[in-house]
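Format notes (please read before filing issues)

Several people have asked whether sequences and structure tokens are stored in separate files. They are not. Every record keeps both together, in the order shown below: the sequence lines, then the token lines. Line labels are part of the format and must not be stripped during preprocessing.
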Amino acid sequence: MSAVRPALPLDARIPEGPIEKKWERAKFELKLVNPANKRKVRVVVVGSGLAGASASASLAELGYDVDCLCFQDSPRRAHSIAAQGGINAAKNYQNDGDSVYRLFYDTVKGGDFRAREANVYRLAEVSANIIDQCVAQGVPFAREYGGTLANRSFGGAQVSRTFYARGQTGQQLLLGAYQALARQVDAGKVRMWPRTEMLDLVVEDGRAVGIVARDLVTGELRRFAGHAVVLATGGYANVFYLSTNAKGSNATAIWRAHKRGALFGNPCFTQIHPTCIPVSGEYQSKLTLMSESLRNDGRIWVPRSKGDSRRAAEIPEGERDYYLERRYPTFGNLVPRDIASRAAKAVCDEGRGVGPGGLGVYLDFADAIRRLGRAKIEERYGNLFEMYERITGEDPYAAPMRIYPAVHYTMGGLWVDYHLMSTIPGLFVLGEANFSDHGANRLGASALMQGLADGYFVLPATIGHYLAGLMSGGATRLDPESAAFGDVERGVRERVERLLSIRGKRTVDTFHRELGRLLWEKCGMRRTAAGLGEALDEIPRLRERFWSDVNVLGGGDGLNQSLEKAGRVADFLELGDLLCRDALHREESCGGHFREEHRTAEGEALRDDEGFRYVAAWEWAGDGEEPRLHKEALEFESVHLAQRSYK
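Then the structure lines:
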């Protein structure tokens, strides 16, 4: 597979002027496509979660024709549905000091100053519009007794700016986006392609012109041509095997695009969520998230003494260590996720963890139940408590939850400029699939905000600029029968046939589990140069064993989930190498990237702003070749660089 070498240096196309005027200025300067010409344009959108569904609906509403693909049986099954706690917006309904600037600052600081300022400010700026849009769609946000929208707090903030629908916020937001999408399907502006998985990107004359996908039911390969391609396929947390992501979540779309020339930004920036149900055995295939919103009322603690095996109710108050409240009195249990996760691991490593294997800490609601009453806690978190009890068999109203950190989200992704376009012209990347807004650590309730901001408000404005230039240059003809499409389809078919022909002795899952364990141990919450070097030695050997000994059952002419998983794991085996390589090169600690060699005297992440204040954007150099590193310098004009403190 040949890579398209991008033009360098990287141009993020950030508008000039004060940060609060950049988006307004950009929208004015962007070229437009007139309504008659929009009817001549087709856009291929891969993914139907919050970013993909909102983008498809919005583009169709503007007049473009859209092909929207998802590998699920319905857009409503996208992983966005699993988001629990809420969505941030700078509405300041609580009159508690919130503002667009404060949301912007909290997000930049929460990301440990490794995000692009202009993108983050735009995200904060359009956040209020998202809430208005969703309310107009009928999303049933929680409300106060008087009817006004309710808010709660999330980590890394001292204000209440998170809007929520009990513990089902992602589901309700997705249903809102889905109804907008369904309206355009009914109008004939969107063609929906469920159970269809993108397997490669088609690049012709240096620009993205379509994709090749596989019908997961019939096995048929299909060509989709478009004047632009939009990837809204989520993150790559499942590279770790055990994560809170849906089992089907994968990196194939963005990895295939990367191998066609799209740079990959900050792959080592992965997020560990502090409140997940602990691993219970080798048989487990995924983990379950307990919403960060629980930290509003739940208190996190462990016994003060090592090896204390008493039940929680038998440990008196004086023998409990509420370690987050002790170490971070200003933010308490609502410190950012990376900090809470490392603190939980530290007390467990000291021998003070609870539950089987000592890999857990308590999340206790006893004080909140006494203060507010069980009915109020049930109103706020009832479905989460029910889910916890169903999985563990323990009643969280009567005893504390046991939680432990787990892989949850990826801040890294394909590099995009201010227009959300990758280094391949015509390829746009939205939501978690891109790198742009969260730096080295995402604050809670910001993923839904970014996905909907990108889909409803940013892409509909910026994609027109690219399409207007395309049309003025006369490049409007779509040809799915071109040689470029034929070459890509041939490569996809050969890869499928190769996977089916190996007939080794090991299942796909055994390779995935081995890769995940290796990454968790060497490139998880804590990383060292030695451990990363060991991972980089082992992953190529594991990849070689995969291609010689994997056993993919069945054939390629129909439904074959073993084949689906094999293709995804093959990509994870390459992505895992890049993840470790990026972590090894970044000789600093920042956010979720914690190198043991770089910490403060108090054990916190120690950045190196002189050496690493940049986006690491990696270029695929070919099979067996080391990837090439490109850098986008990060300039901070509106916030002051400082060591993060939540004490």
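For reference, the curators noted about this record: The mean pLDDT is 96. The two ends are 50 Å apart (CA to CA).
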